[in-house]
Predict the 3D structure of the following.
Amino acid sequence: MNASIYKDWGEVSSIYDDILKYSKGCELHNANEAQTRFDIIDKFIRDILQWQPGQITVEEYDDKKLDKKGFIDYVLRYGDTRIVIEAKKLGSTFPNFSRKKRLKLTGSILGAGAINAALLQAEEYAKNKNANIVCVTNGRCWCFYPYKQDTPRDSTYAYLLFPLDSVADAQQLFSYFSLPSVEGDSLESILSETPLPIQRCLINTEREADARLGRNSIADLIAPALDFAFHGESIIDDKDKLEYCFVNTDARTKYDNTLKIFINDRKSPLISPAKRIKKSKEEDELQQVVKNMSSI
């Protein structure tokens, strides 16, 4: 598809504003799954993320499931990429907004409750349809991760974005899953489970913001990348990354309250302080030489 036909974030932001306005006035206890899909999830996929007819399959039957739940809400296809999306109603008990954007799949938050049941259901569909990305959403919370049958669930981390609670999260969802972004290999960082380099994250964020970098808005653009870099669980177990992220000071040579670990700044045994010159009451050899030179 011609790239000029695609809309950037600035152009679809009015659609996002309409979805946001609707979601704020929606009564959660009355929101059912079909209505949530029609009013929020469909609009995100078609109007904001710009997936086209022929690339979206709705209610695709999973012929390997024998029960009545064998229909997949959405399957998105582009090249070798297949994304299975399981949709739930807006009032489903999914995680609340959090700045932490990666969580362990089997942890206390994603490993229990309604979202865990939705993830397991979506994984079964992904397995049967040879999909490589699993996503579940109730419109407010979007949880997604790479699906690999040979990867244990307890070593898999999922991404969480909350586009109805944060404009930055909405832009990040756009940068990952909009069709023009997918064509530009935006999902490669998810499929390889390697975060985008911080420089690329900042460049993408700046471009998505339509290059309007005001004095008061620059922090909002930098914050998502920094937040992801400093709060990813992988960094805690990586000594080399920690050394780059934290400046060695006296305050960090013992116990770090932020990381809850000990960080020692050990000096090389080859480096030792200069020995202090001991002075005696009597003149030493050096003082005598200086005295003799001054008398000449």
Q: What stands out?
A: DSSP finds eleven helices and nine strands in the chain. The CA atoms of residues 97 and 166 lie 9 Å apart.
